[in-house]
Each structure stands twice: as C-alpha cells, then as structure tokens.
Amino acid sequence: MAMFLRGLCVFCVFSSVSLQYVPPYTEECRTGMYPPSGPTFKGDVAWYTVDLDSPASRRWTEVITDKKPDLIVMAQAIRDLEDAFVPSGRLAELLDKALPLIIDTLPYPFNEEMKGIAAASGLPLGDVILFNIFYEVFTVCTSLVAEDPDGNLVHARNMDFGLFMGWDMKNQSWVIAEKLKPLVVNVDFRRNNKTVFKSTNFAGYVGMLTGIRPNLFTLTMNERFSLDGGYIGILEWILGKRDGMWMSFLTRSVLENATSYAEAKKLLSDTKLLAPAYFILGGNQSGEACVITRARTHNLNPLELDVKQGRWYVLETNYDHWKAPLFLDDRRTPATKCMNKTTQANISVKTVYDVLSTKPVLNKLTTYTTLMEVSKGTLESFIRDCPSPCMPW
C-alpha cells in the first residue's frame, strides 16, 4: 500500500519541484557540517527526564506541559488532513469514537501514559492514540552503525516523518513533518535516580524510535514497506487478534529491559509484530551491529557487521538490503557512496553527520538527526531543515 501511494503521489509533488532535482539527483558528499550550523540546522533538542518510578499517567506531564501548544497545532493539522480526505468530517468523528475504545486493550504502561498525555494536553484521547500509531505506516528513515579503527561503534539516524501528510506547494514542504519539528525532545529515562536509557522522541509519542542503553547497545527502527503492512496488524488488533506487539512498544521494552546486545537482538528478531520493520542494532563490542529485517512473524536475511570481510558499517533506509531500492527513493546509494568515500579510518560522529547531511539522505521529510556512541553513553540530536532545492523524500 505504501508503495502504491508513493507512486500515486509522485506527480503531485514533483510538479512543484524543478526537474533538475528529480531522482536520481544527488549532490557531492558534504564535509565540515559538524558542529551543526547554517541553513540545514534548525536547532538543538531540549532534554527532559522521565521517572519510570512515577505513576505512568504522570510520567510525561513536564514534557507535555512545555510542548502543549505545539502538540495542539500538530493535532489540528492532522484533523485538517482528515477533513481533506473525507470532507464530511465523518472520518474524524469515527476516529474520535473508535480509537478510545481500544485504549484499555493496549499494554501497560503505554495505555496509562497516553491517558496522562491526553489529560495534560487537553487533547481528545483519540487524537493521542492516533498520533501513537502513525509510525506503523507513515515513515521513511536512514540508519547506520559504523565501527572506527579502534573498534568503537557510532550509531546515527535521520528521522524522516510525514510522507503523504499534506504537501505544501507554496513552501515546498510536508505539513506534518514541519509541525513535528517543535515536538522533538531528548529524554533521559531514569529508575532509582539512575539512567536506564536515553532516547530522541516526539513529545506525545510513548514508543521508542531512537535510543541508547549506555555502554550496552543502541537501537533505531525504520519502516519496512510490505503488502502485509502495519495497517493490517492495527486492524487485526482492533478486531480482537492481539498476539503481535506494536513495533515502538517492543523497542521501548527492549531499551528498558534488555541487559545485553545478544538479548536485545533475540527479542527484536523473534517477537511477533503488528507491522514489518527494520531494527538497526549496535552493541558495545567490535563486530556487534546488525540490520534485522522483520516480517510480522519472523526474521529475514539478517545483515551483520563483519570488519574482516570489509563490512565495517551497516546501513538501512526502507528497502530490503538484498534488493534494489525504488529509484524514486534511493537514499541508500548516495549514503553508501559517502560512507565509502569517508573510509573507516576517518569515521566519527562528525563524518557520519556529514553523510546524513548529504541530499537526498537529508530531504524534506527529515525532522531530526541523532548521533550515538555506546562506549561513551552519549546521544545528541539536532532538528534539521532542507532548504530548496531539496528532494521531497
């Protein structure tokens, strides 16, 4: 379905983009982009603390109190899109009635956290639930893990969000992607006043898309397009078949509870899911990194870091690594070119940021870039912009 919609959307988007920048357009690999500055850097990301010992319904109160105006603006933008699809307003009415009915079927603590977010923001519970299931069907991303000559691992990602969610012809931007940028936050999750894991989140979203368990492992998740997609899993859940796990709930559970790279890898490989996905996992030892390609029920053809075989990095966009990417959305080729041009001898957070700043790896959907170093336990994120001329995705 995502593939079909993407093809359907190509004409309307590219009609407002100069043919000079239609795929397979790429630019020369960027250099000297770090520390971030200039037109592609929109701002630093603020840090918050979430206390895992506090009641689930109150964990996000500080974040939501600070981000309430931006969350309300984003929710209204989503409602405007609903009205654009179904002008009668019946889609919004249906979602308002139907989605709150599933809240108590969702696993704890996620259901209680969503209730707390709705209470703190003043938004209808249905809006909060809808925001929390978007990632199952509407995202494109680039993630990579690279090993430097000393065996240290750098894990980085561009979060591209908002595909098909309202193309603004005047500003040549995606409406929802732009509304999400003010909602980007870094979160330090603590228990007994000690850090358990850190993540980059969208305020109001309780799952995890990007995170680090310091000194143990790093994890990002990318969408995997498939006919057996997330919308089917969500429908099955609503209809009462609930033997699969929500992708972002699984990643959060892994970040919170797994105590080793091996344990995280097994959970991400074997747990039945509502939607197909790519899990990009890095460990804390030389050679510990992989791309886990998931169908809803099983793992497919894992890609492992293997420095002895010359594979000193693994890289994933949104296409199976053993297949060619869609030519209209080939971020893999330019990212690979830039990684190879960088060479292992020069790999660092600085040079990886350069790779993720090269168009079309950086594109109109890119909301933030995150850089993680497991051995240092560090996570840093930056809100991004891609001024025109820039690829839509």
UniProtKB/TrEMBL annotation:
Claim: Hydrolase is one of the keywords in the record: yes
Keyword field: Disulfide bond, Glycoprotein, Hydrolase, Lipid metabolism, Lysosome, Secreted, Signal, Sphingolipid metabolism
GO CC, alphabetical: extracellular region; lysosome; membrane
Enzyme class of the recorded protein, top EC level: hydrolase
GO molecular function, one term: fatty acid amide hydrolase activity
Chain ranges of the Choloylglycine hydrolase/NAAA C-terminal domain: 141-378
Pathway(s) it belongs to: Sphingolipid metabolism; Lipid metabolism; sphingolipid metabolism
Segments crossing the lipid bilayer: none
EC number(s) stated in the UniProt entry for this protein: 3.5.1.23
Signal peptide (residue range): 1-19
Annotated compartments: Lysosome; Secreted
GO terms, biological process: fatty acid metabolic process; sphingolipid metabolic process
Similarity annotation: Belongs to the acid ceramidase family.
The protein's name in its UniProt record: Acid ceramidase
Organism: Ameiurus melas (Black bullhead)
Lineage: Eukaryota, Metazoa, Chordata, Craniata, Vertebrata
